[in-house]
Design brief:
The chain contains 37 helices and 22 strands. The chain is α/β, with parallel strands linked by helices. The strands form 7 sheets. Strands 9-10-8-11-14-7-15 form a 7-stranded mixed sheet, sandwiched between helices. Strand 21 and strand 22 form a beta hairpin. The two termini are 70 Å apart. About 6% of the residues have low confidence.
């Protein structure tokens, strides 16, 4: 398809195009070192690492992607250190705010709030704003908080007094609010709630019906009322009710109500801002102690280094070789990323090199990840340093989709662009041509099917201002899910009957929780699926059981105990569900530790397990309960979970309580790797961007423009607000609550951005299919601001559907179903299941090949293999059978590495116990392994001449890097500097063969120290061979 169009555009034959492409293909392969293909983040990491290398820090830090674990550690550290004298002011501040919350009867999950506000530290927008301001002090926040509280209390007092006055008047006349027109639905009952200081009622105010009555007493009576009641109501209004109600309405119409709403909005988050500087300090300290750099900090560091520099020197190590740049998905680039790239592109342009920025603002759906589509749409074309170089070659042909899909999307999004002001500019080029290959008369034209359903409200008799619709929505959501599942299955079966492979079908959803609800249902029906959300590690019973048991050893709560007993009965004792529930009930009061450990036929005592480090405890319990043998998929989950523990353990200081806290926060983001099998893809729209599928199903095409549960914080300047709000320069607010406050303008701007986000998500979803698109839309009554309504409006405007009020369920389709769906190319080694009958298997995970049992036991549960080299020198291992064995009888593959680690903690021959305590307490080794190392150390010290070397007077330096004249780092195992300026250099080897290379290595160390002015002696200690070798110069 593409070759045909290129040949036509360039006026040359297709064969010439093919030949040229082949020539360039060969040229690229032979010159591949001239290419650097990477993500922007990886590119920045390489640059920072190059700088670190120049400073001799190459091995001294690691890059960490997930910042949440460090934020969790920082918050935990704040609580642990509150009793220190330096934190006296912080402790007092927390006490004051806690007392204030209790007095106001407001719940305060202090730690959860601290973790939530701590996430601001990782946001590019926050960093950019705070770079221009000093951090807030606790006293500054406390003073500001009191000013806000005063605004709130004064306004509430006025409206409550008016409500009490109105309440007293109606009572003095022997009437109730329901006696007035409208009865219980007139909304005047809100006055009683306001009078009782109900905060929700005060904030919400009066509804439209109540306001109409307050403004005109004729709206309070009806012709059908008895004359006595009409007269009583009229007299009541004349005797002060008219004025009281008018005062209430006036309070809500005044500028002071805007002040009140603004104060409430700011106060919700401002308290926690006082802790941000404390959290940030601990966050940075922990990162420094653990030698970690957060991924997002690389860009920030580069930005600081290159500021006010025309051609930044740090790019020389990578950028000097690169002449042309292609930045893909440019619409998802952040301000920081672009500002870091600008110097490189300007340098390239100055040297007459060409560059490409590729993107589509209609597919910008990552704004929550700092992306800024305005760079591509507005800022770059107006940039005086770039505007003269810009060219916009039109990309007007769709090579992916068949005619019907292309034309449907052209018409739909052209309609939306004409009717939604916010997207008009971005969607000016939305109309695409169908590729010539998809335009021929002999090819199929594709199919679009849309099912529309109206969901009526179930509480039509409740006043709208007090309609608590949570249970109503839950019922609707349950019915909607059931209907969507039936819809999905119907279309899967239909597509399979027309030749579709499982991998040809993708189900796109907006939210992760929707994948979690769909995947189990399709699994039960026997459909093979591939979905990261369906492969969540935390959903495995074996993992839940292990976490519960670990948790129970530190927090023996009844609910944890009950969960453990049920899992234990189901999977260890092999009971059915009813028997397991009975078993759990019968043993609730028993000593759980004794019960389970005795039943499990183990020699471990509960007291022993409780004293273990995190990694040792997890490994022990895994073996005690044989968790890898529960069922066919357990080994995969438990293997991944154990790997995760070893990865996270250093970050939580090998602490069991800290790991449990980390797990509670992060468990929903831990997944098994996706298998490359023939299966239906269940995927979010955000992860589907850039992909295509023959058939796409969108079962929940009804996401809202404004998510009512969205508590995203936005930092807003206060310079255009009245006192006292402008007493600090900026405040964090949840923008969804900013309507009718002094931040109304920013609220409208954010709604505009969210509208663009929602339409862009719809565009990405609707442009994924190549052959067929199926859309299911359920529209709730009175719903206006969601994408389903947008599609419905388009269909109604073109008279393609009837009014949903007249007909609750409708189907509209375009084109005809493809007679034989063209299959998507398979991954290498993946065989498609072409049968029509659903596969009979319990779980998609069964398609993943299990590791060899021996390798599984020997490698995956050795904590020391996580992120460490196998040995100090790979050539040392020549006979695994001669290596020591761990407590499970497996070869101890990293024995040499741990011996080196132990020796790095040793100064004299008396330090063995100290070194082993450090390694055991940190969780690097178990007690069993410590005894093996102790024995090995005793044997090494028994070698003639070794003990003298370890007790020689002088300065000891273990594994300290030395920079060579050529810039390389050398790291001898041990160097002793004696009083007579002699450097005694020792290197350890724990293999079973002696090599000349070992001698050359020590001579290299000796020559280096000789150049530094030292006399030198060199030795090799072969621990496994029991040999000390003196090295000549």
């Amino acid at each position: 398809k593409l070759c045909h169009d290129i040949a036509e555009h360039c006026h040359i034959s297709q064969s010439a195009i093919t030949q040229r492409a082949n020539d360039y293909y060969v040229y690229i392969l032979h010159s591949y070192d001239n290419f650097l293909i990477s993500t922007i983040d990886s590119f920045f990491v390489q640059i920072v690492r190059a700088c670190a290398y120049e400073l001799g820090m190459l091995d001294d830090y690691t890059v960490q992607i997930d910042a949440n674990s460090l934020i969790t550690q920082a918050v935990n550290e704040i609580f642990v250190t509150l009793d220190k004298p330096d934190n006296k002011d912080l402790l007092q501040w927390l006490h004051i705010n806690l007392h204030r919350r209790l007095k106001a009867e407001e719940p305060w999950a202090m730690k959860a709030d601290m973790l939530n506000i701590g996430k601001e530290l990782t946001k590019e927008s926050y960093k950019e704003i705070m770079s221009r301001h000093e951090p807030f002090t606790l006293q500054q926040i406390e003073d500001y908080n009191q000013q806000l509280q005063l605004v709130i209390e004064q306004w509430q007092q006025h409206v409550v007094e008016s409500a009490i006055r109105a309440q007293n008047i109606i009572r003095s006349h022997g009437l109730q609010w329901s006696d007035l027109k409208g009865g219980s639905r007139n909304g005047l009952g809100a006055i009683d709630k306001i009078a009782s200081r109900n905060k929700a009622a005060i904030k919400q105010g009066l509804g439209k019906t109540a306001i109409a009555i307050a403004q005109d007493e004729n709206n309070a009576i009806t012709k059908s009322m008895k004359a006595e009641l009409r007269d009583a109501i009229t007299n009541m209004f004349r005797n002060g009710l008219r004025q009281a109600l008018s005062d209430i309405v006036e309070h809500y119409n005044s500028e002071t109500y805007t002040d009140y709403l603004t104060a409430c909005l700011i106060k919700k988050n401002i308290t926690m801002v006082g802790l941000l500087s404390n959290i940030e300090q601990h966050y940075r300290d922990i990162a420094n102690r653990q030698a970690k750099m957060m991924l997002e900090n690389n860009g920030e560091l580069i930005s600081k280094i290159i500021s006010n520099t025309s051609v930044p020197f740090i790019y020389e190590k990578i950028g000097v070789k690169l002449q042309h740049f292609l930045i893909d998905e440019f619409q998802d680039t952040s301000n920081l990323q672009w500002n870091n790239f600008r110097p490189l592109l300007l340098e390239s342009l100055a040297n007459n090199h060409s560059n490409m920025l590729v993107g589509d603002v209609k597919q910008s759906i990552y704004r929550w990840r700092n992306s800024n589509w305005h760079l591509m749409a507005h800022e770059l074309p107006r940039d005086p340093e770039f505007c003269d170089f810009l060219h916009y070659p039109p990309l007007t042909t769709n090579y992916r989709s068949l005619r019907t899909i292309v034309e449907f999307n052209n018409n739909l999004f052209h309609f939306l662009a004409e009717n939604i002001d916010q997207i008009r500019d971005n969607y000016g080029d939305v109309v695409q041509a169908v590729s010539p290959a998809n335009s021929t008369n002999d090819c199929e034209h594709g199919y679009v099917s849309i099912d529309l359903k109206r969901i009526p409200s179930k509480k039509n008799n409740t006043p709208i201002e007090y309609n608590d619709s949570d249970s109503d929505e839950a019922d609707n959501d349950g019915e909607q899910h059931q209907q969507a599942m039936q819809w999905i299955v119907r279309h899967i079966e239909d597509c399979r009957a027309r030749g579709a492979n499982w991998r040809d079908i993708a189900i796109l959803v907006r939210k992760k929780k929707e994948t979690q609800s769909i995947a189990p249902e399709l699994n039960k029906l026997g459909y093979p699926i591939t979905s990261q959300e369906a492969l969540r590690i935390a959903d495995a019973p074996c993992v839940q059981f292990l976490v519960d048991v670990i948790n129970y050893f530190i927090t023996p709560k009844t609910e944890i105990k009950y969960s453990i007993l049920i899992h234990y009965a189901l999977y260890v004792l092999n009971m059915d569900t009813e028997q397991a529930l009975t078993y759990a009930s019968q043993h609730t009061n028993d000593d759980l530790e004794e019960l389970i450990l005795n039943t499990s036929d183990t020699d471990y005592e509960p007291a022993q397990i409780r004293l273990m480090s995190l990694t040792e405890m997890a490994q022990t319990l895994m073996h005690v309960f044989r968790l890898d043998q529960w069922d066919t998929t357990t080994a995969l989950h438990i293997q991944a979970f154990m790997d995760l523990i070893y990865e996270v353990a250093p970050a939580v200081a090998y602490s069991v309580p800290q790991f449990i806290n980390w797990w509670k926060i992060n468990k929903d983001n831990t997944f098994l790797p996706l298998p490359d099998n023939d299966a239906i893809s269940i995927i979010t729209i955000h992860k589907a961007k850039g992909l295509d599928f023959p058939v796409v199903l969108i079962p929940f095409c009804n996401w809202d423009i404004i998510n009512k549960n969205d508590d995203t914080i936005i930092w807003l300047p206060t310079d255009n607000t009245p006192p006292p709000f402008n007493n600090i320069p900026l405040v964090p607010v949840a923008i969804k609550g900013a309507q009718n406050t002094h931040f109304q303008q920013q609220y409208l701007a954010e709604i505009s951005e969210k509208t663009i986000d929602a339409v862009n998500e719809l565009y990405v979803a609707f442009t994924r299919p190549s052959q067929e698109l199926y859309v299911n839309i359920s529209i709730k009554e009175n719903s206006t601001d969601n994408v389903g309504v947008m599609v419905s409006n388009y269909l109604a405007d073109n008279q393609l559907i009837n009014s949903l009020e007249q007909e609750q369920e409708q189907n509209i389709h375009f084109g005809a179903p493809v007679q034989h769906i063209k299959n998507k190319p398979a991954q290498t080694g993946v065989v498609a299941d072409t049968s029509h009958t659903p596969i009979d298997h319990d779980n998609a995970l069964k398609n993943i090949t299990l590791l060899n049992t021996g390798a599984y036991k020997a490698l995956k549960f050795q904590p020391h293999l996580q992120g460490l080299p196998l040995t100090d020198n790979e050539e040392e291992i020549t006979d695994i059978a001669q290596l020591p064995q761990d407590q499970h009888g497996n070869p101890w593959l990293n024995y040499g590495t741990l011996m080196h680690e132990m020796l790095s903690h040793i100064t004299t021959s008396q330090d063995t116990d100290k070194a082993l305590d450090i390694m055991t307490n940190s969780g690097h080794i178990t007690r069993y392994e410590a005894e093996i190392l102790r024995s090995a150390m005793d044997k090494m010290m028994a070698i003639s001449g070794v003990q003298k070397l370890f007790n020689h007077p002088g300065t000891i330096v273990n594994e300290h890097p030395v920079i060579c004249p050529d810039g390389k780092n050398l790291r001898p195992d041990r160097v002793m500097i004696t009083p007579d300026n002699t450097a005694i250099i020792i290197d350890y080897k724990f293999g079973i063969e002696e090599h000349d290379a070992h001698h050359r290595q020590v001579r290299q160390y000796m020559n280096l120290y000789s150049q530094m002015g030292f006399s030198t002696q060199g030795y090799l200690i072969y621990g496994s061979l029991g040999k000390l070798v003196s090295i000549d110069k």
